[in-house]
Structures are given as C-alpha cells and as structure tokens.
Amino acid sequence: MSTAIDNSPSPATVAPSRTYSRWTSLAVLCAGTLMTILDGNIVTVAMPAIQSDLGFSGPGLAWVVNAYLIAFGGLLLLVGRMGDLVGRKRMFTSGLAVFTAASVLCGTATGQGVLIAARALQGVGGAMASAVVLGMLVALFPEPREQARAIAVFSAVGAAGGALGTFLGGALTQALNWHWIFLINLPIGAVAWLAAVRVLAPERGGGLGRGADYPGAALVTGALMLTVYDIVGAGNRSLTATLLMAALALALFTAFTVRQARATRPLLRLRLFRSRLLTGANAVQVLMIGTMYGFQFIGALYLQRVLGYGELATGTAFLPAPIAIGVLMLGLSARTVARFGGYRVLLAGLVLIAAGMALLSRAPVDGSYPVDVLPPLLLLSAGFAAAMPALTGLAMSGAREEDAGLASGLFNTTQVVGGSLGLAALTTLAASRTDTVLGRGADLIPATAEGYRLAFRVATGIAVAALVLAAAVLRPGTDSPVTPR
Asked: Can you give the residue ranges of the Major facilitator superfamily (MFS) profile domain (predicted)?
C-alpha cells in the first residue's frame, strides 16, 4: 500500500480552558453521549404502544429501530474522520443540535413515514455526536492513570444509560405516552448543547483538504449502511437475498480498501489496522456487544412474554444493572485497570459475562425474578463494568493522536455492527426455535421460553468466543508499532 507522507502538525485537539476543568469538559461529553445512548434503548419497551397508535405492521414497526441503526452505524466512520478534519468540538455540537431537532420531529410525528424519517435523522445526529467523543476524551486526558479514570466514567455513563433507557421507556410510556420518550430530549439536548459550546475549548481541525476523500467516503458509508441494513432485516427476507446483499457490501468494502491504499490523502489510513490492539479490540467488541444487546432485548421479552411483566415492571427489573455498572465502573474500574492491567481486567469481565449468560440459559417458564433473573443480571453487569473500560483503553491506545477521531468512530462502528448482528442472529434463532416447538403441539408460553433458552445458550457461546479471542490477540507486548507511511 502507498499513502502520502504527512509531516504537517497534527490538528489541535480539545484542551480545557482556564475557566473550565477537564473533568467539567468530560461531564459535558458524557451528558451528550447519554442522550444518544438513552434513545437507542428507550424505544424498545414503547414499541407496542407505537405500533398500536400509528398502525404499523410487524415488519414496518422494525423500521422504527432499523432507520436509526442504519444511519447511525453507516455514518460513524465517516463523521469520525470528518471530526479530525473540521474540528471535533464542531462535529460534536452539530450532532447534538441535529439529534435534538430530530427528537422533536419524532415526538410530534403522527404518521409512520414521518417517524421513520425522523428516526433516520436522529441516527445522523447521534453518529455526529458519538463518533468523536473518545478522541476528545483521549486528548483531554493523555496521562494513562487519569485516562483510565476518565474512560471508566465515560463507560459507566454509556453502560448505565443503556439499561436506564429501558426503565425510562416503560415509565414514560405508561405514565404519559410514547411521544414523551422523544420529547424529553428537547430540554436535555438544549442544555447539553449550550454547555458544550461554553465549556469545550475551541479547536482547529486539520482542514478538509487534508483527507476529504469523497469517493472513499461514499464507498465506505454505502458499505456500512448496506451491512447494517442486511443484518437488521435478515429475518424478513430470503437467505438468497441476504447473501446477495452481503456480497454487495463486501464488494463495496473491497473497493474502498483498494481506494484507500492508492489515494494520496485517504479517508482511512490503512496503517491503523497494523495495530493489533486496535484491530483485536474492535473484533472482541463485536462479539461482546452482540452478547449484551441480545441479553437486553431478549431478556426484556422473557420478562414480558413468559413471566408476564408489564412495561414499567420490565423497566424496573433492569434498574439494578445501571446501578451496579455505575458503582463498579466509578469505584473500582480505573483502579483495577491501573493495578492489574487492561488485559487481565478484560478477561475477568468476559468470564463473568459468559457465566451470566450461562445462568440465563435456564430461563424457566415458571421462573422468578430474584432466583432466575437478578443473579445473572448482576453477573453480566459486573462483567461489563470490568470489560468495557478495559477494552476501550486497549483500543484507543493503538491509535495515534491525529487518528483519535477516526479510531473513535471505528470503535463506535463495530459496537453498532456487533449489536445489530447479535440482536438479529439471536432473535432469529429464538423465533425459529419457538415456531418449531409450536409445530410440535406445545403451548405458546413454553415454546417461547424454549426459543429464548436457545438464544441465551448461543449468546453464551459468543461470550466464550470473545474471551478466547481476547486472550489470544490482546496479550501485553503483542502490538505492532503504528508508524506513518
């Protein structure tokens, strides 16, 4: 491969002003990220109410989620790189503004088309705000010990926000109506945007002329969007159609790779993938997040469809997760990583995740929350609290400073792809197993429980695969130096 040698100074990065500390800046970044993460999960519990109100069909309802995921996952890599070029603060604040405006459109939607289009616009804003955050965080906290603490705080907010979204979705839908799961973003977004403009220090990007590879951008964005579209819609089309879309996405990725190897100023510097830490951490994340997304979605369905929980009760049942994740990440994670190293902490976390999923694979028809749900929920929360900050630190340590925005976008992209892939695979397996058991004459609830048990067993295998991969490729001292070419 041959890329241009870039000897110009790296772009200015986010630095704390004299008035505001770095930790205040981190709080602003966490607040903006929390809003986008909440909205990614808050919709799940409200889906039946949205379907009833707007008259969605089953396949049509899936697009309330899919429209967001396709735009979000497809644009993360592009806007991550664009953040390096035009300034990460500018990209972050613009993303907050777009996301907040789109949320108002979602909350006031009275038709299916408007809601789906507004959800896609939310995905655009969410990608703009999320893709550059890790790059900004690494620049704010270059010292390893402080960086570990900052990553722990950021990861705690993200992980807790995902579980908290399930609770808020149920509470707002039951107490008011589904429109408020979106309208609540207006005051949150306005305050976060004003705080970001005031608190985050000005920065200067490298300029669009230093990497605005528009043909490459079109190729990779099309490839990512098609990949996410293929994954999230796999259960609603034939195997042949799914494989054809996968082949087309692969062709686009191949064309993008060839272009990046030859471009004078590539959008994605391929030397990034010479870092074993960066590449390996992203691969591990695909498996780990696929497991966790499957647990969150199928776990909620198990509570509702097998144990008979309502919307608010389901959301409340998940509340121990954000509490445990927040306490463990903020109280122990950074110190544990500093003492034992990210590698060991990551492996320990993955062991706990696999154990939690193995316990969930029992999923009895007559199960009880204290015995059959809470123990694995706490194991999964503890495992994720340990694994996620460690994995994030390992991934970002494999990127140069001027590539931090791109590395951040890449890390977020694999998170979306992993979540979408895991969710699609596990829900499809569960539905297929349920149909098979129903065909043998079983009642609906036992058949549904059997489908969920299969999904949890497969998720356990995925978690074990993540553990094996992490142990093999993320060992200390195995990373390849990433140097300019």
From this structure: 25-478
Contacts of 291 (CB under 8 A, 6+ apart): 353, 357, 422, 459, 462, 463, 466
More confident residue, 335 or 438: 438
Domain count, the chain: 1
- 168: domain range? 22-473
pLDDT at 484 over 70: no
Q: Which of 435, 437, 428, 295 is nearest to 361 (CA)?
A: 295
Q: What is the DSSP string of 21-53?
A: -HHHHHHHHHHHHHHHHHHHHHHHHHHHHHHHH
**Cβ pair 294, 424 in contact under 8 A:** no
**Contact indicator for 424, 232 with CB cutoff of 8 Å:** yes
How many other β-carbons are positioned within 10 Å of the β-carbon of residue 239?
8
**What's the chain's average pLDDT?**
78
Q: Which of 24-28, 245-249, 399-403 has the lowest mean pLDDT?
A: 399-403
Give me 478's structure tokens: 């195995």
What is the rounded average pLDDT of the residues 425-444?
85
Q: Is residue 38 part of a domain?
A: yes
User: For position 240, what pLDDT does the model report?
Assistant: 83
User: pLDDT-derived band of residue 60, with 50, 70 and 90 as boundaries?
Assistant: low
Q: Residue with structure tokens 């966490």?
A: 30
314: domain CATH number is 1.20.1250.20
User: What are the φ/ψ torsions at residue 389 (nearest 5 degrees)?
Assistant: -60, -40
In a domain, 388, yes or no: yes
- Amino acid at residue number 159: A
Is pLDDT larger for residue 303 or for residue 60? Answer: 303
In a domain, 433, yes or no: yes
Q: Tokens 């790189």 label which residue? A: 81
Q: Which pLDDT score is estimated for 348?
A: 92
What is the distance between the alpha carbons of residues 480 and 156, in angstroms, rounded to a whole number? Answer: 29
Residue 277 placed within a domain: yes
d(CA 481, CA 464): 29
- Taking CA 197 as the corner, what is the angle to CA 120 and CA 117, rounded to the nearest 5 degrees? 10
Over range 139-157, report the average pLDDT. 76
Give the residue-averaged pLDDT of 177-205: 82
Contacts 24+ apart (CB under 8 A), 13-16: 13/88, 13/135, 13/136, 13/139, 13/203, 13/401, 13/404, 14/88, 14/89, 14/136, 14/139, 14/140, 14/200, 14/201, 14/203, 15/139, 15/140, 15/201, 15/203, 16/140, 16/201
